[in-house]
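Our consortium's second objective concerns turning raw sequence data into structural hypotheses that experimental partners can test. To show how far this objective has progressed, the report includes one record in full. It was chosen at random from the queue rather than selected for favorable results. The single chain below, 287 residues long, was entered without modification.
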Amino acid sequence: MQLIDQLKQQSDFTTTEKRIAAYILAHPQALTKIYLKDLAAKTYTSHSAIIRLAQKLGYQGFRDFQRTLTTELASQAQTAETVDANFPFTADDSVTMISKQLADLSASAIQTAQRQVDTAQLAQAAQLLAQAKRIFLFSQGDSQLRARSFQNKLVKVNRFALIAEEYADEAWNAANLTTDDCAMIISYAGTTKTHQQFASYFHEHHIPVVVLTGNPDSPLLDLATNSLLTIQDEYHFAKIGTFASQAAFEYVLNTLFAVMYAQEFETNLQGLQQKQQLMQDGPLTTK
């Protein structure tokens, strides 16, 4: 995870460390040249408090921390223009401007997700899903649309996932899972009570659970066998739409599918060729 994302997430930060992080995020460009003593004065903290924060985030000291921040800011300057994830356009924007803002927002959300994704966790999630006898996808609202898209792709590798919360059958589906199956919970907020209830049951009965969320404080994470996290600058309320979070989720799920496909690439490619022949020129032709 990149430094800027770590500062936003503020995992296990003390009150003092949160104050330092808040100042850095509010004045990122100034931080590339600031002296340690000046940062301490502006945040009403001490030299040692700033150094402890840098070390907590994996850096040897303040200079190492500062160099990384400078590099990240330079990289961000070359990427898509920053757009408000909650209100990416206004009533005064032209159609051209709206189309550009949404394109920039989608690109930024995907770039952020790519930086944040843990490749080891991604590989493990792909393995869990590939080995599962059955896959159950638990998701609601907009996230269920992403689940359906993922379900559609899995068919291409002869894997069949069930949308577990369809037709209000989620409790029955949860009760039918075994240790040979895998549950996947897709929820940006990660706070749905039903999902917590099911995840707790799965955890207690040693049923594999993959969680995809945008909330680093989601109670689901402690119950998951595997977790995929992408944090976007999107509120859980007061927003026009879930543009950023769903673009990020779609990217992560597409990447997860690609990893699964690549794990048995030649077999999947041969299957693709055989099935396309059946559907295009063989007995399964429908056109």
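The partners drew two points from this record. The CA atoms of residues 170 and 176 lie 10 Å apart. The chain has a mean pLDDT of 89. Both points have been shared with the crystallography group to help prioritize constructs.
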